[in-house]
# Entry
Amino acid sequence: MAPAERPDLTEGVRVIDPAWIPLSDGTRLCARVWLPADPEPVPAVLEYLPYRKDDVTAADDAMHHAYFAGCGYAGVRVDIRGSGDSGGVLTDEYSQQEGDDALEVLAWIAGQPWCSGKVGMMGISWGGFNSLQIAARRPPELAAIITACSTDDRYDNDVHYLGGVPLGYYLLPWASVMLAFNVRPPDPAIVGDEWRSMWLERLEGNVDLIELWLRHQRRDDYWRHGSVGERYEDIEVPVLAVSGWADAYVDAVFRLLANLDVPRKGLVGPWGHMWPEIGRPGPEIGFLQECVRWWDEHLKGRDTGILDEPMLRAWMQEPVAPAPDPDERPGRWVAEAAWPGRDEAPLAFVLDAEGLTAEPTGDAALVHTSPQTVGLDAGAWCAYGNPADIPVDQRRDDARSLTFDSAPIAERFEMLGQPIVTLRVSADRPRAFVAARLCDVAPDGASTIITRGFLNLCHPDDHEHARDVPIGEPFDVRIAMKSVAYAVPAGHRVRLAVSTSYWPWLWPSPEPVALTVHTGGASTLELPVRTPHALDETLPPLGPPEIAPRLAVEILDPARPRHEVTEDVVAGTTTFVMSRRFAGARRFPSGLEYRDDDPITFTITGDDPLSPTVECRRRIEVARGDTWSTRIEVLATMTSDATDYHVSTVCEAFEGDELVHTRTATASIPRDFS
# Structure
């Protein structure tokens, strides 16, 4: 269902553009402010991002903040330091400087004549991260937050590492994204003649993030900074946490509900990394109405009834045939009064030579080495609603893995939470990881992924400490799989697939690994069973999706996502090319034109774990007709040998056809038990 536009709601909304926020060190941040027609002071809602309010996020900003203004709030969208039209240089994600600036921004907003003094923060992804981080600093102006598709754990639930293994699918690609994003120029139409000196400052001060992230391969103080899970008690304001089952960050919702001690709610739908009013797979919901209820409760002191509703609302997914681009995911909303939910015994299986059984039938040592190409049917690590984001049929990956199948399920059951895999394993190499996938196998053999989990076997206890895998010596590991809500129908089988590779999601171990899984009751699978109950029927219905009228953006060239896998049989090389094209080519009402292209190429040859290459090419053009034209081109590559990761980045900046800046950076970083 496409969201309905509400011009009636936003009639008379005023816009301050640009609004300049002076910081104590002399830097100015650039903002856009939407105000209600009524000039009386109102609470404000802040969104604080590096993604450029005048182009990349302009459409989303307009449909959200004008809506809030129509409901009696000031919507404030700020470009963080070093991004968009704000001054300074952006040197890392979630830096101390970013948080310090935010405290000044909140104080500035609260002091404006149009603000009542109360402020909420919201955001998706980066803005969801920093909403949590800034809440943990307890600024007096901040009264509540809404955090979407974010995390409380920057090490093990973000774009860098997964289960302690470098996230090949996103580590270099996101570093190259941020390099290209961070060096885009400000707009001369907004900042004036100083745009060029501001641009050169960014180009010269930019940091190569891939090198920085690879120098921290374990959980250390670098990752603890900004991870609010280190001290949940620091957050003292109400939190609405939102995600989707196809999003990479859904586990954070459950951790926040379990560990915060403030008024809190969780909302998890079927969506990917998207706002729920436009989320895919659908159904979309009236999310902005829910936001207004949250703000009314906590910023205006109105009793909206939202705090009387269950703590968690989640979409219970019904099984469907695997497909890469579903419009909607069938299911229903279910509720939990608190999280953790009701104490129900898990559905427990043991891993056995015969499959998944209730009791062990013998004691076996099952040895497996996966081809390096397991994982090519994984879908996107973080779905954005693009074609091929959702995993396809898993039978090819299953055939290359060590699989354990249950008997056909006699009676339908539903699960909500994290499946837990406990394995007794041994390995023949000192560096190894294990990938575990839970699949729903239909009577026709189709294998639909339910969820998955991963662990670097050099991190058996935690991600701070590491050691070589003891060769041939059995030891126990526990893998908490990604949280899920899923109904398994009668007649289907549950499959656990275990592999020693998962490319390109995970960077391969230095050598092929023969992993032994020990059975006889030592290795188990526990599924978090949830029995339907009456609380599900008490949930108030969610309204249809609504937004403020869309920005009149002219599409010059629509984004055309790519997802192509090819195999050179003679060379033995498999190549996977993807491209999301964040914005395609657009012209905004201001006359600003924005174009991007971002092909990413993953290659691997045969079963050689030292052959993978990731290559990221990014081209971003920002222009205004024939009067002003700039271009950023980035080429970043990553390879490895048995001892080191090797990264190389070339960044070039052009004004018109003139090269105004170039920078090349290369580094070799020792592999730290990975």
